[in-house]
Description:
By secondary structure, the chain is an all-alpha fold.
Amino acid sequence: MLKMTSSRLGAALAAVAAMTPALVLAHAGEGLPHDHGLSAGFVHPFTGLDHLAAMLAVGLWSALTHQGRRMVAAPLAFAGWLLMGALLGAWMSAAGGSLPGVEPMVAASVLVLGLVAAARWKLGASASAALVSAFAVFHGLAHGSELQGASALAGMVAATVVLHALGLSAGLWLRTLAPLWSRMAGASLALVGLGLLTRMVWA
């Protein structure tokens, strides 16, 4: 089975992050409102604890349960469907519409992804990608309703890849330690999700 070192993994994801803005600018710009800019889009995922925790959890879970190329299947699927959701969210925002239940689903994704990481729940690469993709659409809808323009969306996706890379790196490191530490890391992310959901209920 192909094995991927942390340095090779980081280099591969960095290359994807570098190419993402050009790809999004080439294919996702038509029909969007005024552009907020690349830097604004890049910073955006770092400003929300829900998005930050979910993207780290995807990388963590993938590193804990997969080897080699399969390790990046879920992170890349998340980034791709995040973009699809963001495009839909931006279009709906420009049209004056929105979907209900987006924020609770985003919070629930943090809880679920943290739990599967803590449990080291092993799924096939395709099944893992499908699970995170379903959540990624809701994250994209939330981002797309707040960001405008192809450059901003490109920055958002690039930041997502960076966060996934951080989660993957953490997972690779935790694999060298006793299982308790990776379970604690996943449980901590799950507690963030539980806290977000609890706050919504009591708000």
